[in-house]
Amino acid sequence: xxxxxxxxxxxxxxxxxxxxxxxxxxxxxxxxxxxxxxxxxxxxxxxxxxxxxxxxxxxxxxxxxxxxxxxxxxxxxx
Length: 78
Fold this sequence. Notes:
mainly alpha, 3 helices
């Protein structure tokens, strides 16, 4: 199992699902702000995440794992 200590202990949250949800909220909302450097997350992507309450379904989690695993393997085989 992966460590879910994202360095945000001041949230005082013990439920792993809620920790991940809050972290995703932080990443999406922070990534949507234009700080004048680099890219931002598109508004429609942030809106979609907001509607879902920043939760990720089991199907999405599986899809993401497969996608990232496949990308990692293809990059290392080059």
